[in-house]
């Protein structure tokens, strides 16, 4: 494993000092991991895999192998114990990952067909079309959160640099910030950046920049109530731990789940943790759409009209309070399907 870590770090052009700073791990420990004189913890391995873009399964197998060798490698009964342990692990492991409902699977299959069709139309991609759809996304995402700008007013603020009479400075900044956040996630997509704490905090920093600068890009330090929801987010002192688990869950599941399910799960998990004082909804939707873009899909634009907004909130509430995510996964899948159908129809004309 030590060679795996060192080679990956050097390929990324990072010094041990830089890795230590990015992960919050002592530099001396990073050096010891690479020399083999110290073994990282499981959480440290996952963080290193994410930063250095090492396949999680590869590095976890290497880590577990060394852990086993260190614990029992020299014991005369080691091989016999391993055989017994293998049987026990096979018996205890639950191979049946929760199956998707037939309804959701049918929609995902339809989405995959649409994506194949979309890939055939990529040569007709238009900057103007993308710009118009991103403008709509900014308008709808802000409308969900109570921004009263119309689509036309949103256009004037973004593309003409105008101020709208009767609209607050906050509403203007919400429009500008969200559009910049879209540009940021598109840049992350093009650089194939992994989703980690730094990137999520950067997205949130853009959303609240100039609105609540003291809270932008920072986890909340007070308890909050989610308006219109019976869900109580974790206490402030648990937020950092919940977020650490959030990124671990992502690294563990990103290669095994359908991208639509992965994106929806990340949205629901982030908004349920509610790590920020404000901007949780916009940030969660941006993280969801970053995952969709990274996997070759298009932005899933949830509408902000009353009916759509209520349906969105209700499915989230069900996921949070009843531990049943089916409705929310279906909701996001249908939004993506509609977005794909519309986009293909526009560029195919």
Automatic annotation (TrEMBL):
Identify which residues the record assigns to the active site.
Answer: 274
Q: Where is the Fido domain?
A: 195-334
**What PROSITE patterns does the annotation carry?**
FIDO (PS51459), HTH_CROC1 (PS50943)
Q: Write out the residues that bind ATP.
A: 278-285, 312-313
Query: Origin, by domain of life?
Result: Bacteria
Annotated HTH cro/C1-type domain ranges read 5-59
GO MF terms held by the record: ATP binding; DNA binding
Tell me any Pfam family this protein matches: Fic
The UniProt entry, under SUPFAM superfamilies, shows: Fic-like (SSF140931), lambda repressor-like DNA-binding domains (SSF47413)
**Which UniProt keywords are listed?**
ATP-binding, DNA-binding, Nucleotide-binding
Cited Gene3D superfamilies: Fido-like domain, lambda repressor-like DNA-binding domains
Write down the position(s) of the site called Important for autoinhibition of adenylyltransferase activity: 145
* Protein name, as recorded: DNA-binding protein
**Which organism does this record belong to?**
Flavobacterium fryxellicola
